[in-house]
Amino acid sequence: MLQSLKAILDIQEFDMKMIRLMRLKRERMKELEHIDNLRQELRAQQAEKESEIAELNRTTASQEIKIHEIKEKIKKLESRQASVKKVDEFNAITQEMTQAERERIATEQIASDLIDKRHLEEEILTKIKESLAQSEESSVALENEIKESIRMINKEGSELKIGRDLLAKSADPEIMPIYQRLLNNKKDRVVVPIENRTCSGCHITLTAQHENVVRKGERLTFCEHCSRIHYWQEIEEVEGSGATPKRRRRKLASSNA
Ligand SMILES: [Zn+2]
After folding, report:
1. Do the bridges between strand 191-195 and strand 198-199 make them parallel or antiparallel, or are there none, so unpaired?
2. What φ, ψ does residue 188 adopt, rounded to 5°?
3. pLDDT, tens only, 162-214
């Protein structure tokens, strides 16, 4: 295996942790957003209900003015009727009064319906306010918990970045940008071992010739299917001593599972 790839593999482990961390952070941010959306929704419902009630109040008030006007009209008709002498005129005013009386009853009915409706809307508004208060109370604890976990994620992320940047400084300046570009594209491991003559990145079978080139480890070799960089694992096991290669191997095996 190319010596310069070993450093890249260590960087890759940092990057994988970072990617997992950022995914977790996005999920947690979404949870916060969801809680906030629910609250916004309830607030919007409350505002809508309040404006409906205000509108009902305005309509009711105008109906009450109308009722008052009709009553005034009836009074005037009564006093006019008291002073008329002709039967025809008297009857005409009676008819007009009956008409006004009908109008008064109808308008009062409308006003009463409006008041009923307003009571109903007020009950709904109370319920909205209650559930808003409830949701605000219960979401505070949850939100704080999520915010705290995001804070921890950020902390871990900065620590990872420091370690990663340190490694990147000493990494091969030719391979590093290639690795970086591949990583940006795939957001996944891009330096992968060949296992059973198969790319462990895309799981497509490779040729014996390709495997040989990788096994020799003389130059950078890319998977012709997924463009990942290949390395040969057994060489490392034979050449390497101590626990480091084994540990890395186990890590890779478990993360590819
Ligand atoms: Zn591949």
Report:
1. antiparallel
2. -155, 175
3. 999 999 999 999 999 999 999 999 999 999 999 999 999 999 999 999 999 99
Structural domain boundaries enclosing 23: 18-170
**Within a domain: 6:** no
In this predicted model, what pLDDT tens digit does every residue of 110-153 receive, in sequence order? 999 999 999 999 999 999 999 999 888 888 989 999 999 999 99
Output 132-139 pairs: Cβ under 8 A, ≥24 positions apart. Answer: 132/39, 132/42, 132/43, 132/46, 135/38, 135/39, 135/42, 136/39, 139/35, 139/38, 139/39
Question: pLDDT at residue 241 above 50?
Answer: no
Q: Are residues 37 and 153 in the same domain?
A: yes
Q: Which two tokens stand for residue 234?
A: 């057994």
Kindly state whether residue 208 falls inside one of the protein's structural domains. Answer: yes
Give the H or E element holding residue 194. strand 191-195
Answer yes or no: is 129 within a domain.
Answer: yes
Among 140, 170, 200, the domain-final residue is 170
Name the pairing type of β-strands 191-195 and 229-231: parallel
Between the CA of 67 and the centroid of ligand 1 the distance, in Å, is: 84
CA of 200 to the centre of ligand 1 (A): 7
Q: Compute the distance between CA of residue 71 and CA of residue 77 in angstroms, rounded to an integer.
A: 10
- Say how many Å lie between the CA of residue 230 and the centre of ligand 1: 8
Residue among 63, 67, 85, 86 nearest 75 (CA): 67
Looking at the structure, tell me whether residues 81 and 51 fall in a common domain.
Answer: yes
Alpha carbon of 36 to ligand 1 centroid (Å): 42
